[in-house]
Each structure stands twice: as structure tokens, then as C-alpha cells.
Design a protein that fits this description.
Strand 10, helix 11 and strand 11 form a beta-alpha-beta unit. It is globular and about 65 Å long. The chain is of the alpha/beta class and 445 residues long. It has 2 domains: 161 residues, Aspartate Aminotransferase, domain 1 (Alpha-Beta Complex), CATH 3.90.1150.10; 272 residues, 3-Layer(aba) Sandwich (Aspartate Aminotransferase, domain 2). It contains 16 helices and 16 strands. The chain binds pyridoxal-5'-phosphate (PLP). Pyridoxal-5'-phosphate (PLP) binds next to helix 6.
Length: 445
Amino acid sequence: MSSPDLVRDFHHIWHPCTQHKDYETTPPILVERAEGIYLYDREGNRYMDVIASWWVNLFGHNHPRLNTALTRQLEKMAHVMFAGITHQPAIDLAETLVNLSPVGLEKVFFSDNGSTSVEVALKMSLQYWQEKGKPQKVRFAHLKGGYHGETLGALSVCGLDIFRTKFEKVLPEQLPVQGPDCFRCPYGLQRETCNAECFEPMEKALSENSNTVAGVIVEPLVQGAAGMMMYPPIYLKKLQSTCESLGIHMIFDEIAVAFGRTGSLFVCGEHDLKPTFLCLSKGITSGYLPLSATLTTDEIYSAFYGEHQDHKLFIHSHSYSANPLACAVANETLSMLTENGFLQSLNPKIATMKECGKQFEGIEGEFRQTGMIAALELVGKNKERFAFEKRIGYQVYLEGLKRGVFMRPLGDVVYFIPPLVITEEEIKIMLNTAHECINAVLKIN
Ligand SMILES: Cc1ncc(COP(=O)(O)O)c(C=O)c1O
């Protein structure tokens, strides 16, 4: 470890989702500044941020308009508590979110990270059923493969063993359901043409348990942490009609997929779906500051309305709820997303990604894409997963670092969620370089 600062980092910092032993051989990149889609380290090396700093960045780093929105707000007020007090940036943001999201989502509850916005939706759903005299509705159906954050409540509806196994014993019991797996479809169908036959287990689970199920939570269209597993909107349509007929809340966790990632502002809006709760975070401030929002309906909100002695209030509070700096940047982010045909301008980029994805056809696996999200799942013969200890994805990551591309594969799924401002030329470089890295790794394995 050459830099004294990296030594200090190693001594004192516990980085997220990282085996710190790896830092003995590959220390973290000491990023000094970031500009557009690039990160620069102390030595001036440049890395293309193809995963948008954990899927948050939309407009590139150090954007003049976002910087101005932030500094203007900073001159007025950095933070105030959000009970007994309100402020203009939050009022503007709530109104904009309500106007832009599907009809029916009328109320916005702010918090400060994705997991928390999920916790809020779960708690609101549970309390709603209590207020409505159905206290037996205490479970949530969730998809195997789903991910909704890592606080204990959010983890209880996570369908990925790697995140939950060590904590299993303290997690509340929920209702895990086999979800879509289009790459390895057990029905032998294609996601482009199927009728979401894989909805069957969900339909069965919900109808058999509707008395005890409060809600069902899903990541619409793309199960991110599972390895960018993608499934068709017909699954969500079926889910909506089942939830409606059985009286079950539908919680859409669009934390990763909203704000242009799939090519539209919200998946629910694009596909005419009406969730009971919509969880938003990540791109909401284009990667500037932590902020999240849980949107819900007037029907839910009014169930919490009453006299003081009715004890109906929703008790959930975070010190940094609706931080004004974050709200101001979110307002600017939403203006930028919705003006001058910005979302339409993504279409040629989406097409370029698709075209460049063809170069992976000779590699065992699947290249898949939903809007501005693309992924290549690397497998052995017959779609067999590589042995865990081989760390194919990690080797690709190391090759990427050598070539100035910061990827961070999920297992053996190499994926791309670049800032939306990436150019078509940069998309070509991103995917061509990834191709080179993958070939280099597969050659020696
Ligand atoms: C779909 C989804 N939900 C929830 C979360 C948790 O968000 P946070 O990391 O801000 O807590 C994530 C984070 O990756 C996510 O992808």
C-alpha cells in the first residue's frame, strides 16, 4: 500500500459490502475528484463510473446546475427537523413527485435512504391493517431474488441468501415466493413473448394467505442485487389484479429503477400500474445527497387520521428526514429529467447499448437490457454457475481497473448502469472494454 492515506483508511475504515482482506492486495481507489461520468484518483488516473456510484448518479458528477441548486439552498438553510416544521424545497418536491407519479399516489413521506423508505412502506401497511380492524394481516409476500435493503425489516423481505443467512434467526417470518427467472425459465419460455406463466406460485401464495398477508413487495422489471434479473411487465399486471381482488397492498420498490433508468420516469407510470406504495431513493438527488420518499394513497393516509387519543399517528422519524439540501437538489434533478425531451434523448443510447451488446453473443451467458440498464451473466456450459471461489466477476473487476473502467460485478454478472448522460461513444467504449476484460478472464479460467 503506497499511500499513507490508504494505510490510514485500512487502519480505521470498515467499508460496506467488502471483504477487507481484499484491500491488502487491492486497496480502494482514493478518488480525489469526479467529473461527468469519470472518477479521478490522486495520481490522475481516470475511471469510467459505469455503475453510477451504486446506481445513484444520473447527470454525472460535479454538475453545474446541481451544484448551484445545492449552494443556493446552503446559503439559506442546511437542515431543520421535519416535525412541527416544513420548508419550501420539501413542499415543492412532494408536489412534483405526486404530479409525476401515477394517479392515486397523493402523499409523500420523506426519509433518508432506500432501505428506510422500504421500512416506512412496510410499517404503514401493517399499521393500516390494524387501524382497519384486520390486525392478523402481518406478513409480506416477497420474491426469491428480491432485494429491498439491509436493515432488518427490509432484510426480512429479501430473497437473496447471501444477504440474509447470517441474520435469519432474528428476521420476522414473511412469505417468500418463487419469482421470475427468465434466463433459466422453468417453463421454457422467452421473456419477450411469454404470458408470465411464472406468476402461478405468487397467485397461489396470495390466494391461500390473503387473510394474513398485508402486502407484497417487488422490484419492478429488474431485480437489481440478484444480478439485474429482468422480467416482463405482464407479471406486474397480473400482480396488480390479484392484489386488487384479494385486498393486498402492492409495494413497488423503484429505488433502483426509477428516474430514467428503464427509459421512463417510473416503471409504474410507464406501464399504467397503480401501487399502494412507491419507494424512491438513489437517483432522486442524482447521487448528490441521501434522500428517499415513500409515496402512498389518500386511502392509506386517511386511515391514520384521528383524535390525539385515538393513537393513530404514524410513529416513524429520522433526524435527517427531508433534508432541505437534498430536497433542493432533488427538485433540480426532476426539472432536468422532465425538460427538453431528456428522457426521449435516451432512446438512441438505449439502442447503442443493444447494438454493442451483440458482441457478447459468442460468450456463454445472457446479455440482457432494460432501458439504460444492461448486464451480462457469465456462466459455464448449460448455464451452470461458476464455482463461488473462482470469483470470475471479481477478476473482471480487476481487469476493468487496469483499463480505467470501474465495474463492480454482482457475483458473475457484469452489469452497466451508467449515469444517463453517458454518450453513445462512451457506451461503445464501456461495452468494448468490458468485452476485452471478460475475454481476458475467461481465457485463463
Ligand atoms: C431495489 C432496492 N431497494 C432498496 C435498496 C436499499 O437502498 P439503500 O442502499 O439506499 O438503503 C436498494 C439498494 O441497492 C435497491 O437496489
